[in-house]
UniProtKB/TrEMBL annotation, chains A, B:
InterPro entries: Alkaline_phosphatase_core_sf, Sulfatase_N
Name this polypeptide is given: Sulfatase-like hydrolase/transferase
Entry-linked PANTHER family: IDURONATE 2-SULFATASE (PTHR45953)
Organism: Pukyongiella litopenaei
Domain Sulfatase N-terminal per the UniProt entry, residue ranges: 2-384
Record keyword Hydrolase present: yes
Transmembrane domains' residue ranges: none
GO cellular component entries: cytoplasm
The keyword Protein biosynthesis belongs to this UniProt entry's keyword annotation: no
One GO MF term attached to the UniProt entry: metal ion binding
Amino acid sequence: MNILYIMFDQLRFDYLGCAGHPTLKTPHLDRLAARSIRFTNAYTQSPICGAARMSAYTGRYVSSHGAHWNGFPLRVGELTLGDHLRAGGVDCWLVGKTHMKADAKGMARLGLSPDSIIGARQADCGFDVWCRDDGLWAEGPAGRYDEKRSPYNEYLKQKGYAGDNPWADFANAGRDGDDIASGWFMRHADKPANIDEADSETPWLTTQAIEFMTATQGPWCAHVSYIKPHWPYIVPAPYNDMYGVDDIIPVNRDDRERDDPHPVHASFMNGRIGTTFSRDEVREKVIPVYMGLITQCDDQMGRLFRHLDETGQAEDTMIIVTSDHGDYLGDHWMGEKDLFHDPSVKVPLLVHDPRASADATRGTTSDALVEAIDVTATIIDAAGCEVPSHIVEGRSLMPYVNGVDHPAPRDYAISEYDYSSHGACQGLGVAPRDARLFMVATRDWKMIHCEGGFRPMLFDLRNDPRERIDLGADPAHADTRRRLYGMLHDWSLRMSQRVTVSDADIAARLARGGGTGVVLGIYDETEIDAALTARYRGKVPTAPGD
Amino acid sequence: MNILYIMFDQLRFDYLGCAGHPTLKTPHLDRLAARSIRFTNAYTQSPICGAARMSAYTGRYVSSHGAHWNGFPLRVGELTLGDHLRAGGVDCWLVGKTHMKADAKGMARLGLSPDSIIGARQADCGFDVWCRDDGLWAEGPAGRYDEKRSPYNEYLKQKGYAGDNPWADFANAGRDGDDIASGWFMRHADKPANIDEADSETPWLTTQAIEFMTATQGPWCAHVSYIKPHWPYIVPAPYNDMYGVDDIIPVNRDDRERDDPHPVHASFMNGRIGTTFSRDEVREKVIPVYMGLITQCDDQMGRLFRHLDETGQAEDTMIIVTSDHGDYLGDHWMGEKDLFHDPSVKVPLLVHDPRASADATRGTTSDALVEAIDVTATIIDAAGCEVPSHIVEGRSLMPYVNGVDHPAPRDYAISEYDYSSHGACQGLGVAPRDARLFMVATRDWKMIHCEGGFRPMLFDLRNDPRERIDLGADPAHADTRRRLYGMLHDWSLRMSQRVTVSDADIAARLARGGGTGVVLGIYDETEIDAALTARYRGKVPTAPGD
């Protein structure tokens, strides 16, 4: 069996037809959901691309792998999905985005060249690269956001789009007469991107995925990782005006959230992104385009699934669809991601297993508390490889997929955020190492602990499912906060770094027992089996001068 | 300046004349103490050789580096003292014991050969090896405890001691007529080891250290790491009968400790080592020999310090003396180490800085809460290298050495112990990953948190300095336990894995700001500086078909 591990970027958990969006059209993903189990309580490990993805690729919490933010290198030697799959004879390929930053210092220290197979896998987060495109080819006075080669830009140039950065000038811009109308400026969002739809990013990456599947023998896991619906919010026709203001779901915000906000929420709310997305004209311009980007993604899913059907690969291919995090889109007076309200921290998660063993759960949903790192364990498990529980902190969801009895993977979900690289850190006057937030969520409650001396945030998910009332300072809920802190503390003492020794290794050591001649606490030979101490009996050998 | 980083193995904090032992003779170390600052509240990071040493060599907590127990490999790529010193142009050499186990799997995965300089340093915990001797050449039916080459055994063979393991037959055995009287059996402890004193382990390693200093150009840090006074408890004449029963300090134990013991304490207390060391005949046989081993170590210190004086190196050599952990010697009904009573978890720590900057503190003591990982930071700092605070979790003690104003390094000390490889784990029916203990100590209190569902232990260090009354279940001290748990939880959320990015790196990123063309939350070009967005203005380049 092969595994398509499909990840979208910044796709909200509730922006799918199958997830209940009233106007958004995602028929192909809805059809997949009818043949999958859909998880409705799936949390990203961090509401920021880089950290979330390093967790997804290592199966470890952010504070376990240490790559807390975009562009923070994943330390050399950290084990990845690719290591665990290849150990079981399954290849692990990349088609698209990882946001991986190589630990160049660490590689140099260990003499690893990016030109070697070992070095290349270290530099690319354990993947073998069919096509890597991190999809953010922005340029400013300080240079490019991403200095890597852009295969997508090369494709566009070869197709005849002029200039050195057609990603910026065509794929992510409309036109205003003869002028570029850049998608970075949201007033242009509803303009059609100035590009043939077939040449835009999502169809291009889908073509890469189809070419990969055509050319590559299995068993493989392919991480098909799309850039969209991530900003810049702009999309080619017909998707640019497919949705209108009437198709937008009501904004979820409340004046009470601004009256006496938690300082951390306030610092993001009052930043440029928060204030911009709090303007209705911005939401009304951007959200229909965000929806168009999603429907374009869905149409490309249709193309991909059709290819699987037509080539007979469908019955032999597991399909997982998720996202790295969500998008506030103005909810809670926020834009982008950063904090832990559902629109930001929850992700869609579909698991389609073609095998008969999964028939019982097709079309069902589970509200189990799932974390992104569980997907890593699920892929390793589904591929028939061993999930090393001393390294991978996620838990396989295959018991859910197969509908068999099993203990819940956990009683609470954790997500983390290090905002030391965000302006809010300076704004709050917090030291970089204190700019860390930890979410603890049960089915009933969500608490956010803030390092740096701030009070926690607390939301009652049963009675305030829209998370509008922060009970973090409410004396009536001190016991609940204490209970959730207990969970956070249990988690924080987890064993996360004993990665060179498994529980099985320890059992084997104990079984071997004291047979290596170290006999402690023995006063007299007669106290233990002579066989154990034979080496310490007998005649004295010759000494110097004897 | 060069640095002699001297470590003894299993030397109790209170078994030095300068530390107040009434009968034990350590004149050379006492003289060093008169020229040093001595820390009276220094804690090992773990009361077990391997874990404690991996913390000493990385400057990181046990649960940060993950090598929890003897023989648990230190993960490849983990940074060590050697990495930090060499980055500053200072060599870092090993003369003696590390207890390092190479991460062979990790090295193979990264293609590192132990024959290469990089691979050899990975395999030897970051040291360049002058002489490595882990000093435990035991043998049993299951083979050798240590399969490495034994330079000490080679030395003894070349001197004419016959057999393939003269370490076992001579250096660590007496004779009983023509028979071997092995030091593993403590009834033989007081017999003189059947070896010329000059050929025994401690003098041999001292000779290695002197040869190193004679042959090697500085600046260097040399880890001179002795095996003794670690068991087997046996020593050559005249040290074997230098002390008698009257020289033993009173045992620190109390029947109340056995009446209603904490289950974890009970499991160790009732094990073979605990029960053996609870027999007075054992203590009276072993402790005088343990004291003799220490005086032999002290005489060798005299030899080493004389060499420094005679060669003029003394004024240019910093000397640090410590141990990896202590030895219960029957206190609290325990032998060996394993738990967190002072005799086990506290270590001696002398820091002698020959520079005038340290004159103010010579002969003084400090009762600051010091951890073994502080020594790592102190060495890096004293050598004039940068202490990378995002990697090294210890704090430099140089402000204490120089007697300048400074904040205390911490309000509480942490020590950890993973007993999953100890029989007590099975005895208690604890899962391997739950067999973990965490000590939190302030000047007034010491609490031990136990994973696996046990209550904590608690000792009132002011009113019960001998730690005989476990208040872990006393309702009167619930607030104290809550306060100490608060400290443990603060510690457990520390940032320990963001090792690829420093706070300075983050500051530089923020200073660079948004100059790379990613402009978020901008509705209209006019909202920001045109220079930042110039790349997104201007005429549309040629498109296909234009």
